[in-house]
Amino acid sequence: MRKLALFLTITFLSITAFSQNSKEAKNLLDEVAQKVEAYKNMYIEFNHKFDNSDADIHQETRGNVTLKGDLYHLNYMGTEQIFDGKNIYLIIHEDEEVIIQKPSEDSDDTLTPSKMFSFYKNGYTYQMGDLKTIKGVKIQYVKLTPIDSNSEIISVLVGIDIKTKHIFNVIETGENQTVTTLEVRTFKTNQPISEKLFIFDTAKYRDQKKYIISEPK
């Protein structure tokens, strides 16, 4: 009887500790999200890394994005992507092509720049991870695990600068052990920006007859 009571006590304490750990992790993520939502706009320069040791693939690319609410202007791998609140404009300079799309009907499941600070809110469980010192900065990691057992994602680690409450990096591990890392290099807020940054200048590209513009049907 005493052994059963001891077992139940240990089990209860373990569940309680895990629940508190999960709540603490969620609260930290919420604090980060609330802070960035208060900014008028954000400018982020980032490194994007893709690693798959089994296939011996290691790639690293830089990019930048300006966000204002749901609007964004992304520069990445020689392309520009603009979202003006209605349409997504993908400008592929190498191919001299512009693709205009409506947001996906499955947009809730699509990670866009405007969702990079809130994607965690649905579909994950939370757990506090390691506290590390990187380049002299204390980074607290939060581990996200997909609730969907069929997800291609095994886990997501979100590194948070303890002092600023800004995201330092996001590390996603896939089921094939592919690791994708997004590391923030520069983070600026409330910058003087032109509203034109989030507007696609159709006339500009139509005048450049080389560019092919594909519009949604």
What does this structure look like?
This protein is an alpha+beta fold. It contains two helices and twelve strands; from the N terminus they run αβββββββββββαβ. A hairpin with a 5-residue loop joins strand 9 and strand 10. The termini are far apart.
| Element string (H = helix, E = strand) | HEEEEEEEEEEEHE
Task: Give the number of DSSP strands.
Answer: 12
**Helix vs. strand class:** alpha+beta
Cα-based radius of gyration, to the nearest Å: 21 Å
The unreliable regions are: 3-18
Q: How many DSSP H or I helices?
A: 2
Averaging pLDDT over every residue, what do you get?
Answer: 82
Beta-strand content bin: 35-45%
The major β-sheet equals: 12 strands, mixed
Quaternary state reads: single chain
Shape by Cα distribution: globular
Strand order of the largest sheet: 7-8-9-10-11-1-2-3-4-5-6-12
Amount of helix: 10-25%
How many angstroms does the end-to-end distance come to? Answer: 71 Å
What does this entry show, briefly?
The chain has 217 residues and is an alpha+beta fold. The chain has helices spanning 2-37, 202-207, and strands at 42-52, 57-68, 71-76, 79-83, 88-92, 97-101, 124-134, 137-146, 153-161, 167-174, 179-189, 212-214.
Strand and helix layout:
Elements (H helix, E strand, L loop, with lengths): L1 H36 L4 E11 L4 E12 L2 E6 L2 E5 L4 E5 L4 E5 L22 E11 L2 E10 L6 E9 L5 E8 L4 E11 L12 H6 L4 E3 L3
Parallel strand pairs: 6-12
Antiparallel strand pairs: 1-2, 1-11, 2-3, 3-4, 4-5, 5-6, 7-8, 8-9, 9-10, 10-11
